[in-house]
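Posted in: Structural Biology > Protein-Ligand Complexes

Title: Requesting predicted complex, 6-O-phosphono-alpha-D-glucopyranose in pocket

I'd be grateful if someone could produce the 3D structure tokens for the following input. Sequence and ligand are given below.
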Amino acid sequence: MCGIVGFTGAQAAAPILLEGLKKLEYRGYDSAGIAVMDNSVISVNKVTGRIANLCEKTDDGKAVPGNTGIGHTRWATHGAPTSENAHPHLSNDGKFAVVHNGIIENYMSLREELIKEGYHFDSETDTEVIVHLIEKYYKGSVRDALIKTTNRLRGSYAIGVICNDNPGTIYAAREASPLIIGVGTDENYFASDVTALVSHTRNVIYLEDGEFAKITSEKIQVFDCLGKEIDKSVVRVMWDIRAAEKGGYEHFMMKEIKEQPAAVKATIAPRIKDGKVIFDELDISTDKLKSINKILITACGSAYYAGCAGKYALEKLCNIPVSLELASELRYSEPIIDEHTLLIVISQSGETADTIAAMKECKEKGATVIAIVNVVGSTVAKLADYAVYTWAGPEIAVATTKGYTTQVTVLYLLSIFFGDKLGLIKENYEEYVKCVQSLPRFIQQAIDMNPAIPTLAEKYHESKALFFIGRNTDYATSLEGALKMKEISYLHSEAYAAGELKHGTIALIEEHQPVIALCCNSKIMEKTLSNIVEVKARGAEVLALTFRNNEKIVSVADDLMFIPEIDPIFSGVIEIVPLQLLAYYVAKENGCDIDKPKNLAKSVTVE
Ligand code: G6P
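-- Reply #1 --
Done. Output follows.
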């Protein structure tokens, strides 16, 4: 979590840092700060709350002179979101300012050591040890002090440093946290993410773990952990800058919901040629595939639920058992894994700490790792044996929408691809491919056929709790539907396998309790219908999601949302769309900050 930026060039640094921080605000938004160097004077401005407060305090940066600086937007881990705990942090001698994303796990012992040596601390953060260590080790070379400092740190970090002995220079170092250098003309940058850079430059250098950089307006030098200079290639970023702008929408989330037909199309396009599913990036041999006896999917949050939605297609088409494990659990569970395991890792950002740790653990045990990931060049993509990109483009709203649907789409495509390689799909191949090709059109229909959702949101937004129920593929989607609702509207929402209701949850059903019932799987519709009747008999109001011509459900539900009819194996991508819209409009009714829900961050780079 947290976002960092750095700039050096001829222009005023503060406005550029603030603009960059606004783009990174999705990574954390409880406090923020900038440190700008004007010749050799470092001035620091910090605020609690959003970047807007920092803009107000600094007159959009105009009040802060200087051409070199670093900035930070925070998601609090160590210490409350106060201005004291906000970054940048200064060394006791005022020579250095530091911003940091990540967690220094051994900060307590370092803090004690530094206090004994006479350093005083102004914050409760783990970060502050970094700046005092740099001061301690500084003997005229920031590079050497950085090497010595990072040698003492355990945990994860992307660090930005300025030093008033070196006006015009910014330093950066990384270990297990994303950090990218932006290569400009007579000016250079660093940032946690390309979205903060693309309005200035599309040429970037990806720093690897253990590397650090000395950056001036004319020169970028990258060093390994021993201080040896290394050659790095400059990569051209293809992301469309407009993707990181709201483009007339009130919220990024609605823009991204509406972008789903195009995003899913972009996911599918390179993978279906002449009616055949192909994956140029996956040269797994059929023999290797035949040796796989278990598929394990791991991820966090919505990416995990994408795995839940894709599991059914994988099992049905590939006839391989698929299990799912939350990455935060998997990493500590001593999983039984060997070279016959295929691990599918799912991550939009490619930087989720638990996901990275879980995949490392499984890789060490011999699993073949496929990563389904959106951010090109991210850690997950680099660590995997095979990176399969979702091509959803930048996703800015904290609550994922197009990230999720493109992940599920990749799982559908993989199911057909593997099933075919294994010789398991015969007569239905064409039909499956057509189904996946229809997904963008069906998503658009699911958006268009639900004009009543804002009215439903008016009816349900004051509910104490919302229960989502479904079976099989409907259950998988209800998990993501409930998560979407709780994360942006703050309504207590839970998903239950419809058959499990009787085993406890039904005790909570009382007069007017809303139950959102997903009924899009015709094979088990009757069963869900029985559960609907059971909750209705106890006074529940049922909002059902189903097909327009599904008379049984239509006649029994109190309210309805619709999707076009589709084979249940591939319905997850469509079913989630009305639930995203419902969550959006309920959150709007409740006056919530839809794109930046409280306490959340988009990229969770801490455990
Ligand atoms: C955070 C985000 C979720 C996301 C999860 C996993 O909680 O708010 O939207 O699903 O992290 O992130 P990843 O980048 O690994 O998909």
